[in-house]
Structures are given as structure tokens and as C-alpha cells.
Amino acid sequence: MTVPGAGRRYRFGIFEADAARGELRRQGIRIKLNTQPFQVLLMLLERRGEVLTREEISRELWPEGTFVDSEHGVNAAINRIREALGDKAGNSRFVETLARRGYRFVAPVERIVPGDFAPTQESVSAGEQIAVPAEGGVAFRNRILASPQELPKTPYPVVQTLFILLQLMYMGFYVGALANLAEIEDLFSALPRATAALNLLIVTAAIMIPVRVFLLCAVLFHAPGVREKILKLWPFLLAVDVLWSLAPFLLLHHINFGVALSCTTILVYSPFAQRSLVLMGAGQGNHEVSGAAS
Fold it and tell me: Which of 87, 139, 192, 271 has minimal Cβ neighbours within 10 Å of its Cβ?
């Protein structure tokens, strides 16, 4: 029985598959996956984007003359793979089912140079919640931030519209604050460092207005490399957007404290939502999103 891609390693999303060791890992942690499902996974990875028929899988798993319910066996192997990857048949991020044809691996796959995995961690059962070892800032970001494979497939117009609306919302914050400085100055007068707070508001609003214009133009006109550019800019956006999540408190002359606090807690999530929308295809164009998913 041959092993597809023997001696090779593949990386897809936060997972790695080592054909030589017969191991599947999620961010360095081994996930239990039996031999036959792992063989099928390697076949799918080796032929990423191509349709793998049930007959091809059966011939690989069971030699001629072997008496077995191959259809049930193939279905079971695919289900084990999906459990290990946290995938779902109805909303496939990795293994797509094509009715009456077979299966196809749809996520981007990187073939990597053979080498050792990260230090071995205790194996866990497929589908079990896995803790990621804390190893500096990268591990922390991997725990908190979603990867493209962990995000749902969403129609491009929805993603694009939501991203644009978020930028317009912030533009409204900045312009509204600068247009009502007298009222805000009166509101800040009770603060210990009122002048510094007011200056910070003016400076960040003045800086962020052109930044938001850049984001809007880049996304609306599908600038080359827009995804990479926005992701590089995102740590800066995160800091400023968390600061401006306090914007509802600038309206305390018009709303009560409870409403302002509720709106602020929602706005704290906004920079993370923007990052997710970029990963889901905002600014890339409908054809690019479709191509990346196939």
C-alpha cells in the first residue's frame, strides 16, 4: 500500500501533516488520527483543488480482493478527518464534498521542507478542545486572533459592505468630534488632565481621517496587496480603535452613562471584526475570493 507524499510535510492553516511520521498537528500539538483517515488526508493534500473520487480512495486503502464495505469506509475516513480539523460538511473550510463525484481539499496548502515538528506535546483526541502552548507573542496572537480557515465563508458583497460601513462609522466619529470641540472641552473639564485628553482627541482624529480615506479607497478600488497592507497596519488600528471605542462617552450630554458604556463594549470588538472581514476577502474582489476558496 503506497503512502501519498511519503516523506513530505504539508501546512494548511494552523495544521501540519507529516507523511513520514504519520502525524497531524495543530500548532505543534499532535491530534489523534488513525492510519486510514490520515492516508486519505495526504491524498487530498497532494491533490489540493482536484476532485478525489471514492473509487480512487478505495483503491488506495484496500487492495483488490479485499472484502469491505468501501463506501462506508470512505465516509468514515472523511468524517474522522473533519473531526480532527474541526470542519463541517455543510460549511467546508478544508474538505468539500461534491455530490456523486467525490471530495476536494479547498484550503491553501503549503508543502514545506522536511524537518522536525515543534516539541512533542501530549496527544489529544480528534475534535477535542486543544490548548495552544504560550510561547511569546506569536502564540498569544494565535490563541486570540482567527486564521482565514477558522472564519466562515460569507458572500463577498456582505463582507465588502460591512468593512466599508465600519470605516464610515469611524469617519463619523472623527468629524463629529472635531465639529463639537467646545462641547467636548466642557465635558473634559472634569478630568485631571483635560487639556492633554482634548489634544489627544484632536491629534488622533486628524491622523485617522486620512487613514480611513486610504482604507476606503484601497478596498473600493481593490488595490494590489490590499490584504497584506491592511494586516500590517492593523496593530496601529487596534490601538487607535480601542481608544476611540470610548467615543460614545463624548455624547454624555445627550445619552446616559449606561448607554455609552454598552456602545463602548461593542466598539472594543470593532478592530477584530475589521481584521476578520479583511481575511474573509474585503477589498480583494469577488473573483479573487472565489479563486482562493477553490
Answer: 192
**What average pLDDT does the chain have?**
82
Q: Positive or negative CA dihedral for 186, 188, 192, 198? A: negative
The Cβ-side half-sphere exposure at 270, using a 13 Å CA radius, reads 25
Phi, psi of 142 (to 5 degrees): -65, -30
Above 60 in pLDDT, residue 83?
Answer: yes
CA 49, distance to chain mean position in Å, is 20
Going across the sheet that includes 9-12, the strands are: 29-31, 23-26, 15-18, 9-12, 110-112
CATH for 119: 1.10.10.10
- Tell me: the pLDDT tens digits for 195-228? 999 999 999 999 999 999 999 999 999 888 888 8
CA 225, 11, 292, 48 torsion-angle sign: positive
Q: Is the pTM of this model over 0.85?
A: no
Q: Which domain holds residue 59?
A: 9-139
- Parallel, antiparallel or unpaired: strands 15-18 and 23-26: antiparallel
